[in-house]
Amino acid sequence: MAPPMSAGSFLDRLREAGVTVVEVGDWEHHNRNHKGPWGPVYGVMIHHTVTSGSERTVEICREGHPELPGPLCHGVITKDGVLHLVGYGRANHAGLGDDDVLRAVIAEKALPHDNEANTDGNRHFYGFECENLGDGMDPWPEAQLETIEKVSAAICRHHGWTERSVIGHLEWQPGKVDPRGFTMASMRERIRDRLKS
């Protein structure tokens, strides 16, 4: 069980990892904590946005939309590899997912197939939205993939987690396909290698 790190520690860990960070507004206090608890945290969840255009993408992820109020994540990773911090605390990113998957993440074991949506993921995961159309054809620039790797490894290193604590939305909630265009297995390999260095 791990309490979420403070916003200041979160920012420090990201910068120490060599990530280019843009702080958007009062991101440290922008959250959905009034809707439920934030923590304990057990992992990192990666998403794609189904949007294009960095400025618009960051705005949507910070403010949300009528059906889903923001923040929709903690940070937005744009195609240029920049991390835009839009919220900290509970965020509307993971939704309900599979309790068996959560148990596997906590135990850092191979993930089972997600076939239920019975557990609050917004409470337990750091969430990162990555600018991509999610159609399987929109490219993932190396700068963006490298930032996903660095951000995930920085959080894992802080909490003493392995790469098995990093999952995709598609591995958490039935019917989700994100991130699409690279595999989470390949991303976990990259994170594992970075944690060794």
Automatic annotation (TrEMBL):
SUPFAM superfamilies: N-acetylmuramoyl-L-alanine amidase-like (SSF55846)
GO-annotated biological processes: peptidoglycan catabolic process
Species name: Streptomyces albiflavescens
Highest taxon of the lineage: Bacteria
Protein name (database record): Peptidoglycan-binding protein
Cited InterPro entries: Amidase/PGRP_sf, Amidase_domain
GO molecular function: N-acetylmuramoyl-L-alanine amidase activity
Pfam entry (one): Amidase_2
SMART domains tied to this protein: Ami_2
Domain (N-acetylmuramoyl-L-alanine amidase): residue spans on this chain: 27-180
